[in-house]
Design goal:
- The protein is mainly alpha-helical.
- Helix content is about 40%, strand content about 10%.
- The protein is built from four helices and two strands.
- A two-stranded antiparallel sheet has the order 1-2.
- This is Polysaccharide biosynthesis domain-containing protein.
- InterPro entries: PBDC1-like_dom_sf (IPR023139), PBDC1_metazoa/fungi (IPR008476), Polysacc_synth_dom (IPR021148).
- It holds the Pfam family PBDC1.
């Protein structure tokens, strides 16, 4: 499936069934990730062969990012924030399958997934090839 060159994400209609499917998949990923974190420290994890490249790029684009400081959801989901994340993730379009997949994000790296500490965002999954 290809997306029209005239497609504008900010004007796209939300389809409840698609959002529900994303939510189910995102919860499954969160549960799997949390199970891993219960056995290993996050700093010891290497989930893909591109982890270091993605992290280095993240720190280049978002130099103020600090996993010990809670995320500012309003800033992240603002027009400027969304564009910054879109540009960051677009670098991986041809390198990573599902490069812009929806996921649950913990807003506070010190807290578990919960109603007040979790937001829906985008995340990068599995490298191609």
């Amino acid at each position: 499936m290809s997306v029209s060159t005239t497609f504008k994400a900010e004007e796209a209609e939300n389809f409840e069934d698609i959002e529900k499917q994303f939510a189910v998949k995102a919860v499954n990923h969160a549960q799997t990730y949390w199970s891993i974190l219960e056995r290993r420290k996050g700093s010891e994890l290497r989930l893909t062969r591109m982890d270091q490249e993605i992290y280095d790029h993240l720190m280049e684009v978002f130099p103020d990012f600090n996993s010990a400081v809670p995320l500012d959801e309003d800033e992240m989901k603002s027009r400027v924030g969304k564009e910054k994340w879109r540009l960051f993730m677009s670098k991986y379009e041809k390198k990573i399958e599902d490069y812009n997949f929806g996921t649950l994000l913990r807003t506070d790296g010190k807290a578990e997934y919960g109603e007040r500490t979790t937001i829906f965002g985008r995340h990068i999954l599995t490298p191609l090839g």
